Amino acid sequence: MSQDQYVWRYVDLERLVDLLARKALYLPRGDLLGEAFEGTFPTQSINSRQQLFRTFAGRVPQGPPAEWYLSLYRDMQREIREWTYVTCWHIAKHESFAMWKLYGRAVALRSTYARLSAVLAARSVKLVAVRYIDFEKDQFDGNNSITPFMYKRQEFESERELRGIWFDEDGFNDLTLYGPFDFPLDAGKSIPIEPNELIETVVLAPALPAWRRSAITEACRRFGYAGSILPSVLDSTPKL
To answer: What predicted TM-score, i.e. pTM, was given to this entire model?
Structure first.
């Protein structure tokens, strides 16, 4: 991917203010991304795993049955999803009407691959372009803790997603070695960033009333954002 490739994050006003005021990028938890298949495995991988554990259990007659191993693995993967955090960006040269409809109630943050990569690398967040596959026929390439978050079902390929993935290994190890603990897990994690290093341009959502455009612009400046603030190209007037 080109270092100059534009990437976009469509957000509401609250998330924009949170990013600018706290100088922090929020990463929601992997199991709370709104897609039931996030962080899970395709059918072929599950079938292969079941066969592997059945073969292993058959070689150890005095050991636990295959279902015990399968249940243990499923519990571990469920916990991995709870300790993985993700920031999602859209890869495109220009604004997306569809993304505005889905996510953009206030602004789109426009960055570049180079900017986003530098910011996330400083915080040990892995940046990957999501691969879209048929979950009934295809399998993953690789098998580490974050691999399932590098893939999505092919029905979502219009999202053209670039995502930063962070697995909280320390938190996960505390849970598996000493847990489970009786406390609620965080819904997400925030990583410190410098907004002016990340954001190249703030694009205002289309069809915003004038007072709301002014309020968003004032908030950006008040919290120290020094970059460009532009109207949406969807607000352009046609020439007849």
So the answer is: 0.89
Q: Does a structural domain hold residue 195?
A: yes
Exposed e or buried b per residue across 113-135, where buried means at least 16 C-beta atoms within 10 angstroms of its C-beta: bebbbebbeeeebebeebebbeb
- Residue whose C-alpha is closest to residue 111's, from 165, 166, 162: 162
Asked whether the beta carbons of 161 and 152 are under 8 A apart, the reply is yes
Residue 155's pLDDT is 97
Q: Which residues contact 101 (CB under 8 A, 6 or more apart)?
A: none
Q: Is residue 12 assigned to a domain?
A: yes
Closest by Cα among 78, 33, 39 to 172: 78
pLDDT digits (tens, 9 = 90+) for 192-229: 999 999 999 999 999 999 999 999 999 999 999 999 99
From residue 170, alpha-carbon distances to 167, 177, 188, 189 in Å are 9, 10, 15, 14
- pLDDT interval class at 176 (50, 70, 90): low
Range of 185's domain? 6-234
Domain assignment present for residue 239? The answer is no
- Number of separate domains in the chain: 1
